[in-house]
Amino acid sequence: MFHHGGFGIILYRPDKVDKLQSVTRCCNQQLGLGERMELLEAIAKSACRDAGKLLIDN
Fold first, then answer.
1. Could you tell me the residue range of the domain that residue 43 belongs to?
2. Rounded CA gap, 39 and 30, in Å?
3. What is the pLDDT of residue 1?
4. Are residues 21 and 10 in contact, defined by beta-carbon separation less than 8 angstroms?
5. What is the model's pLDDT at position 6?
6. Residue 5 DSSP class
7. The total number of structural domains that make up the chain
8. 1 within a domain of the structure (yes/no)
9. What CA–CA distances, in Å, run from 20 to 4, 5, 26, 28, 49?
10. Given phi > 0 = left and psi -120 to 50 = alpha, else beta, which region is 10?
11. CA-CA distance, 16 to 28, in Å (whole number)?
12. In sequence order, what E strands does the chain have?
């Protein structure tokens, strides 16, 4: 079994009729203020990086 640390795992199975299969469900976790800020910072960096790629490619 996978150690997923609270994250859900979804498999893509192209050979099946139902192509997406949920292996494990995610669980809710309480985050402290510092962890929330780190998560928001990572999301913002990722969004800026992706936006930059779109602007450079076009």
1. 9-57
2. 13
3. 47
4. yes
5. 66
6. T
7. 1
8. no
9. 18, 21, 15, 22, 28
10. beta
11. 30
12. 9-12, 20-24
Q: Which residues contact 33 (CB under 8 A, 6 or more apart)?
A: none
Q: pTM of the entire structure?
A: 0.47
The reply to whether 37 falls in a domain is yes
Q: What are the distances in angstroms from CA 1 to CA 18, 21, 31, 37? A: 22, 15, 25, 31
Sequential pLDDT tens for the chain (58 residues):
445 566 778 888 888 888 888 887 777 778 789 988 998 999 899 888 888 777 776 6
Buried b (16+ CB within 10 A) or exposed e, 2-13: eeeeeeeeeeee
* Nearest alpha-carbon partner for 9 in 19, 20, 51: 20
